[in-house]
Amino acid sequence: xxLKQIHVGKSVVSFALISISVVLCPGTxxxxxxxxxxxxxxxxxxxxxxxxxDEETAEEIFTMNGEGENIMRLTNNTVEDxxxxxxxxxxxxxxxxxxxxxxxxYTMNTDGTGVLRxxxxxxxxxxxxxxxxxxxxxxxxxxxxxxxIYTMNPDGSNLxxxxxxxxxxxxxxxxxxxxxxxxxxxxxxxxxxYTMSSTGRYVTRLTSNxxxxxxxxxxxxxxxxxxxxRGKHEDIYRVNIDGTGFTNITNTKLDTGxxxxxxxxxxIVFVTTVEGLVSIRIDGTDRSPLDIPLPDRxxxxxxxxxxxxxxx
Length: 312
Fold this sequence. Notes:
The protein has strands at 3-8, 11-16, 20-23, 46-51, 60-65, 72-73, 81-86, 92-97, 104-109, 116-117, 125-130, 137-141, 148-152, 160-161, 169-174, 180-188, 190-197, 204-205, 216-220, 226-230, 236-240, 247-248, 256-261, 267-272, 276-281, 288-289.
């Protein structure tokens, strides 16, 4: 898998080279498995992604429809623009850019206008994630000397260090109700999965492994009962929020990318460099490729799918 690596102090924070955020509504080409998504906004049935335009060396951000057509370029710079994330109401896109000399977090309208810089400091900030109500953005930064998880308002105000721990706390994932985080941390030696309240209290360790698996791309099930994530060999795993049920779902050692839960709480959709978008039951059965074609020049990618009709 190809990753963008940003070195933060002694650690390495990796961002997907090609990030894809999908919004689907009834009537799109994704017919398997059956899902019942909530009401979608006019921005629905769009995919936001980043990639390298032809003969260019800097990543840019694009949108296209659910059929892989009507590609629209949102950014046009000689620097890196990547890691796009739809806001829950699908009116803004958060992303990372070094357009001002350092990796910072920005937002923009869905047509690329109205760019707003949210962070300003001399260390990289990355991995922005919207809360389900759109009132907060969580991200990682080493401005305190190590990788911590911060939250801020969508305009960059009210910055709070949530973890404030002398370790690497990374890959924050909001719970569906916005009251908790799942995250990865090496605070106990190896990288493990933890949960905590949205204010950083009541930290609970969910996994315990003898080797450093470096988990990433954490995502809660819509019913708040299971956390899925990528782990060793980039396979997708799951664990219940009480720490039980640790299972390798994909178990293929293929180049899998990001994923999203479907609203039935029983399937996820993920990305591979071979099959594109694939759905699979959370127990590892019922694997089925989805008919959502992507542009040829983006046929080899690592994807980070963060939204499907309002579910993060």
